[in-house]
Design a protein that fits this description.
With about 200 residues, the chain is α+β, with helices and mostly antiparallel strands. It has one domain: Alpha-Beta Complex (tt1808, chain A), CATH 3.90.1570. The chain has three helices and 13 strands. The longest helix has 19 residues.
Length: about 200
């Protein structure tokens, strides 16, 4: 479960650096928020989705390219430090990754894979911060319900651009130039075959 660390002062980057490696730390409205590392179902969905998108959109293999797509980048957005599960930048806006350990250029797309411990934080405070910083696309992937909800920034508001789910090949904006295998996100490990 994501927890807010009580502090008499606003959290600092040094507070994040002091956290153990087995947690994810973020600073939201001056509060240090600590979440556990993802559970297997969450990690599978994130890893498979990153794999589905990176080839055609990050590397241009079988798709248009033009994106930098990263797993758990550390975003510095004004006073907030956020760590989405995945984020992407159009290469025209960020041709090369920065030399720092974080990104202060807002992404064009973020993806949060929902889990019971982080869903409320992802769907409220973090969603609002992404909107305020004009992130154009937000995806909320829910492995339990096997759905992807896509939100698009329209002016200052977020609108639902679509909800996708189940199995099969789907074209999901802003990556609708190539169909991705949505069913792979919900795939659970196949037990190994018994030896003869």
């Amino acid at each position: 479960m994501a927890t807010t660390q009580p502090q008499a002062r606003a959290a600092t980057y040094e507070d994040l650096c002091r956290l153990p490696e087995n947690v994810i730390g973020e600073i939201i409205d001056g509060e240090l928020v600590v979440s556990p590392r993802p559970a297997p179902r969450h990690a599978i969905a994130t890893s498979y989705l990153g794999g589905e998108l990176t080839g055609p959109f990050g590397r241009g293999r079988g798709g248009p390219g033009g994106w930098l797509i990263l797993f758990e980048p550390e975003l510095h957005l004004a006073r907030h430090v956020l760590v989405p599960d995945l984020a992407g930048w159009l290469r025209e806006r960020m041709p090369a990754a920065p030399e720092t350990a974080w990104f202060d250029v807002r992404p064009d797309w973020v993806c949060e894979v929902l889990s019971p411990s982080t869903a409320i934080l992802d769907r409220t405070r973090k969603q609002d911060i992404y909107r305020e910083h004009e992130v154009l696309w937000q995806w909320f992937v829910d492995p339990m319900s096997r759905t992807i909800e896509v939100l698009k920034l329209a002016g200052k508001d977020l609108v639902v651009a679509g909800t996708f789910g189940g199995d099969g090949q789907m074209r999901i904006p802003p990556f609708d130039a190539v169909a991705i295998d949505v069913g792979a996100l919900w795939d659970s490990p196949v037990p190994s075959a018994k030896a003869p």
